[in-house]
Design a protein that fits this description.
EC 2.7.7.7, DNA polymerase, domain 1, 3 domains, about 350 residues, Rev_trsase/Diguanyl_cyclase, 12 strands, DNA replication, Dna Ligase, domain 1, 5-stranded mixed beta sheet, Alpha-Beta Plaits
């Protein structure tokens, strides 16, 4: 395995939303807390580590989470607050490098090959960033350090919470071969199960499949699997990623069956989406409607216009048309969502510098 040229850090906040709520409300500290939904409706957006011990996790239906942990405390999310804390953390990142690629509010890649400050060691920079996050926000973060994004991402999950794990180029091959395929970043649950049925449980097993066979089974993703199991990942950290979509959704306190009731609820979602579009000054041509039914079945329907949806009236008309096309609603509807995409804006190409070790 050739020595790699970059120094990549992946920082992942620990149970971010729930930790912010516990920080701001001392009564919640040390208790099983989830953000989002309530005891009967919705889904868990984030779970504290106290809740995770009971098997509660993100994206789990609230009713299931309550069964697993009867003492679970539900807290309504405050995403404006989470965004503000996230921006505070990113300002720390930018003091060390301009190459910061956020993946979400609570995690980001940093390329510190040519760091703006600190010692010339990615490990020491990661340790310093973790300390500053704790001092300035009262929150803990876990960090992974390696020469590529794939390994840095996996490393950040190794010692959670409040962990720091390093995978050097010399250690990468042995580490990957012992890694379970279900833990590979980019291999989802369905793919992992398919590989397991073939007797492939670890990186060493996956390495036995040649590229042609992987492409046959998994299409273009097979090339990615072939490379990462060999520690090959030359994706750069992209410091400015254009947003490709904007959306809004709402889970209802009761199931709705009638079109007029759903259209009334849709109006609130349209208003929220329009506020976000105006704030971002983004207007696209493709509107996607998401419907989740009472039994958790989910469908999406999309419509692409010749021109952009650049007025609230056009947004309202298009959303209502998509919704009307699904009538009648035999099953109750528990959630509606709208996403606007296809912004048709030119993408800037990022240039990544490298340094030979």
């Amino acid at each position: 395995m050739e020595a790699a040229a970059r120094k990549i850090i992946h920082v992942d906040m620990d149970a971010f939303f729930a930790s912010v709520e516990q920080r701001d409300n001392p009564d919640l500290r040390g208790k099983p807390v989830v953000v989002g939904g309530d005891s009967n409706r919705g889904v868990v957006a984030a779970a504290s580590y106290e809740a995770r011990r009971f098997g509660v996790k993100s994206a789990m239906p609230s009713v299931v989470a309550r069964r697993r942990c009867p003492d679970l405390i539900f807290v309504r999310g405050n995403f404006d607050k989470y965004k503000a804390v996230s921006q505070q953390i990113r300002q720390i990142f930018f003091e060390y490098t301009d190459l910061v690629e956020p993946l979400s509010l609570d995690e980001a890649f940093l390329d510190v090959t040519f760091a703006k400050k600190g010692k010339p060691s990615a490990t020491l920079i990661a340790r310093e960033i973790k300390r500053r996050i704790k001092d300035e926000t009262g929150l803990t973060a876990s960090a992974g350090v390696s020469y590529c994004k794939f390994l840095a991402k996996i490393a950040s999950d190794e010692k959670k919470p409040d962990g720091l794990f390093v995978i050097t180029p010399a250690e990468a091959e042995a580490f990957i071969e012992k890694l379970e395929v279900r833990k590979f970043f980019g291999i989802g649950k369905v793919t992992a199960e398919k590989l397991n049925r073939q007797g492939i449980y670890f990186g060493a097993d996956l390495k036995q499949l040649d590229q042609q066979e992987l492409v046959r089974q998994f299409g273009k993703s097979g090339v990615y699997y072939y490379n990462i199991v060999r520690g090959l990942d030359d994706r750069p950290v992209i410091s400015s990623r254009e947003r490709k979509s904007l959306g809004a959704e709402r889970t209802f306190g009761t199931d709705y069956y009638l079109l007029r009731d759903l259209m009334e609820q849709m109006q609130k979602i349209e208003e929220e989406l329009w506020r976000r579009l105006e704030r971002a000054q983004k207007y696209g041509r493709t509107l996607t409607l998401k419907i989740k039914f009472a039994d958790f079945e989910q469908i999406t329907r999309s419509k692409t216009l010749l021109g952009k949806i650049d007025s609230e009236a056009v947004l309202h008309q298009t959303a209502n048309q998509l919704l009307q096309n699904e009538e009648p609603f035999v099953k109750g509807v528990r959630l509606l969502g709208l996403t606007l995409s296809n912004f048709d804006e030119p993408q800037q190409e990022a240039v990544q510098l490298t340094l030979e070790f």
